[in-house]
Structure formats: C-alpha cells, structure tokens
Design brief:
By secondary structure, the protein is α+β, with helices and mostly antiparallel strands. It has 3 domains: about 5-95, Integrase, DNA-binding domain (Double Stranded RNA Binding Domain, 2-Layer Sandwich); about 100-200, DNA polymerase, domain 1 (Orthogonal Bundle); about 225-385, hpI Integrase, Chain A. Helices cover about 45% and strands about 10% of the residues. The chain has 16 helices and 9 strands. The protein has helices at about 5-10, 65-80, 85-95, 100-115, 120-140, 150-160, 180-200, 225-240, 245-260, 265, 295-305, 330-340, 350-360, 365-370, 375-380, 390-405, and strands spanning about 20-25, 30-35, 40-45, 55-60, 165-170, 175, 275, 280-285, 290-295. The strands form 3 sheets. A 4-stranded antiparallel β-sheet has the order 1-2-3-4. A hairpin with a 5-residue loop joins strand 3 (about 40-45) and strand 4 (about 55-60).
Amino acid sequence: MPKLTKRIVDAAQPNEGRQLLLWDSEVKGFALRVTPAGAKAYILNYRNAQGRERRITIGRHGSPWTVDDARQRARDLLHRIVQGADPLDTRAADRAAMTIADLADLYLEEGPAARPNKKARSWATDGAILRGHVKPLLGTRTARDLTRADIAKFQNDVAEGKSARTTKTKPRGAARVTGGKGIAARATATLRAMLSFATERGIIPANPAAGVRLFKQQKVERFLSETEVSQLSGAVTALEAGSKLHPSFAACIRLLMLTGCRRGEIEGLQWDWIDFDRGMIRFPDSKTGAKVTPLPSPAVDVLKGLKRKEGNPYVFPATRGDEGHIVGLSKAWGVVRKAANMPELRLHDLRHSFASFAVADGASLYLVGKVLGHKQASTTEIYAHLRDDPLLALADKTAARIARAMQPQQNTAEIIQHPRAKRGADGR
C-alpha cells in the first residue's frame, strides 16, 4: 500500500462492475475511490465516538482537490474526530442551513461523480445556467425552505427577463444572459436536476420542483431547399475566394452539410477516427456515446483537400497556437448566413436539412436515425412529416393521369345516317 501520488492517481484505471479503492500509506483511512465509469474522488474512512464506521467524501479529484490537498483535509478531519466530532453529522447540520448558492457550488463540484455518464459539455451548460439565472434569483434562499410555488415563480421570473443582464468580459467582449420561455424552461429543468441531487444527498427531504410544469417549448425546425443549399454553398465559396472566410471554416460548413454530423463532432474531428477505405468515421464519443458515421464520397473529397498539421491530431487545428482544434465557427457562420441572406439559419439546421433530403428521397426513419446517431427512435420522428413528400408526388402523378382520362373527349368518328324506310299501307 504505497503513498498516494499524482502519478498513481492519474494512472488509476476503473474496475468493471465495482469501484476501486486505493488506500494511502501515510494517512489512515484516506483513499482514492474510482467508480466503474472512471470518476475519481478522495474519501476518508473513520470511526466516530460511538465506534460506528463511517465514510465521508472529501472531493472529486482535480480542481480544487489535488492529492496533497485532499490528504491534508483528511488529517484535519481526523484531528476533529479525535476531539469527539463526527464530520458527517457536522456536514449534515451545515447542509440543513445550506443556501441555493452553496448547493449550486456543491452540485457542480460533486455532481459529476454522482452522474458519471453526463457529458462535460452538459455540466458546463448547467454551470452557466446556475450562475446566470439560479444564483441571482434564488441564491440567498435556504434550500430546505424552497417550495413548489417558489420554483414556478422562478420560471416566470426568468421568462420575464428578471435575470437578464450583460456583463463586460474583456475590452471588446461581453457575456449576455437573456430571458424568454425557452431559457426559463431550460433553467427550471436544471434547477430540478440540482434539487434531485440534493434529495439523494439528504440535504432536502423532497424535490419541490418535481410537480412544476415547464413552459412548452415550440421547436421550429428549419429545412433547406435545393435552391437554398446552392445559395448557401455559393456564399461559402465566394467568401472563401475573397479571403473573408478561413478555409478551415469553409470546410467545416461543407462537412456539416454533407454528413449530418453535429457541430462539435466536426470541430473536434481527429484524423485517426477517419477510415477512408471503408468510408466511415468512428467517433469514440459523442452526445449519444461512441458511434460510427458513414462518410459519403463528397465529404471524402472535402477531407482529402485538407492538409494535416504535424503534431496536431485534429482535422481542423486551431488557427492560433500549436494545440487544440478550431474555435470561432459561430462567428464565421454569422458572416456566411448574412452573405447568403439567411439571417435565421442555424448551424444545427444543416443537420436537419441532411435528414430532410434523406427522408424526402424515401429513406426510412430508422436508417436516417442510424446515420445521424440518434439513440432513440423518437428523436428521428421530427422528420416523419417529410415522408409525405414522395407520397404526394406519387398521388399527384396518378391523379393527373386520372384527371386527363376524365376530360370530355371529342368524337371525331364519321356519323352515317341511314334513310328511313318507307312505310307500307299497313303502316309497316
């Protein structure tokens, strides 16, 4: 049982099906816990004054907890235990008086270990929402005193813009927090998830947000027509030719149009993931986990026109510096859609458009979902109405033929009139 060091902690690998505990030789009861999903946290096992064995989590490995900081915290806790204190009881008392602001900090610090399958990008979004909306409106409230009415009022307040503000971040930059029903529903959902975490930890007895209905978000899906695709592509080409659009951004946009991939997947694409021989991209991770995406020939042509940057694994390396992948696609996209006269078009609409063309050509929703990497069939159902397009074309063609047959026909055949026979004396 060696002394825990940064090297040992970084090298620790999870065990399949059970957690791994690496004990420290220097401080009794101090250990690193590694979950089957790979989340690492420092813990302390101890016995309280009644001889009951207990375990307290010190914190998740990483900022702010290094192995040395966590070991010192374990020493401090053991010192208090010798004096008769029970850290878990003390923590329980502290959490009974915990404010929403304190709970938000705890959730962002310890939540990733409790939700190991949640993506880092999702945690970053949660952090922005908690800091931008929850803390300003509810931060000083005690978590245990929060009611369902408070949650409903919070949603209304965010929708009305009571948390909206603009904060200067640098000489020419600013961070904007906006209101509206969409962000209000998203913020309330994040708050509900945080309160669910608090319930699991015993900080609050029940989740007051559980029965609050979220604002219905009206999703407007935008699909490009063939004419609009040509218009958009022409704008990209013209901007690139005029040196108003970096070639990497132009290639990114073309790949988004040709593959149906998500923006983050293309921005962070690495050469090692691409199998040119089999025509596919093997993403080791994505929004829905590892997946394989078909790589059509036009997309291969785009990729083969790019140069690899030595020492950088990314297809689109950062335009500044030697490490990382490209950033700033949103700003470049603003220039493109303005030039294409499509100010409302989102980057994600390129993914929708790829799916719409596939469905309109008669592809099944199942296959479209497979190409897009949807985990649930219900996600692909937003394109279900597009299946009517080929059916409508068939119906139009058939009806047109029937309509032609229904038109009155002019009879051009010669009409021969026979002379009436003379009647006899008997009238016959």
